[in-house]
Design goal:
Length: 348
Amino acid sequence: MGAIILAPLTAQPAREWLRRVRVCCGTMELERTRAHDADALSQEAPLESVVVAAPRPRDPHWWGETVVDVDTVVRAVAGPLTIWARRRAKEWAFITANSGDGAAGEAERGTLVEADDVPEGEATLRFGFAEAPAALLLRPVLVDRPVVVRPDGPLAIPGGERVTIFVSTPVWVTISVGRASRSRKRRGRKPSVRTDEEAVEDVWLAELPTHRLSDTWFGPSTRVGELCYASRTAGRLSLDEIPIRPHRAVTPVTIDNRAVTPLIVQRLLVPIPTLALYADAGGTLWTQGVTLTRDGDVDAAIARVDGAPPTVRDGPPERIAEPREPEHAASVVRAFSRLFRGNERNGS
């Protein structure tokens, strides 16, 4: 809501109604109050015009397009990662800082800041142009390796049970610049969808992790396996228990144990690069679901990526990033010993 302007207030007879405007949480209530002391009011000088700015609702989306004027600095925050972006006539410069707090919940996009408020001594990236484009584009993308997820404690799934575990992994941020969308009229609005022509002209500059995961090797030996990231998870089984963190994407992993014997989940390999990324209306990031099916009392499983978008609490999500790996990699057969109990060797 825009500013609320109150006209000058002058003394009125005792029976006259006076209006009082109260602004609360971005809404306006209009109250009428009787003047209890008109004589005292008549002795006061007229009040000047008052401008009351209603608070703007918080935008949970830290990603999107921001049009930046020359010699202007804007700030974006995605959880523990903060990015300051400065546009000059022939240059884009970026200063980044990371708190290392994987549970950080801050989100901010395109906030104008003074040049003196930009910290010194942090990591700096500079890019030169014949003429620096006006639009800054930040996009979330999933990590570039599978993630070995270790629950806080072993989870037993009895025979015949089907359980969905919700795990989350930190995303990365891609930084691009380009010309402003034709449908975007002013800075501060929610960014519109860029046309194919506009997207082709975007210039990719860098990719930054919001929270850096440790390296780990996952496989039966040092010669057989793959380089992954390692992460811990609470292994939540209820959608309502998922904390909202703007820099993490939630993956529903369904384990269908059709065997008679229980299945003990001590660690889980999630094929993150084969998944697409979604965002719901509340700003939470999601991926496609992964279903692991164990048939019979054998140490093998079929792992499939769900073709449909995830079912989320804030309505149908929007697909905002494609999988990093080709589509044919989305349906694979892997041994359970590798998915759940494979040998893991942490890197430095």
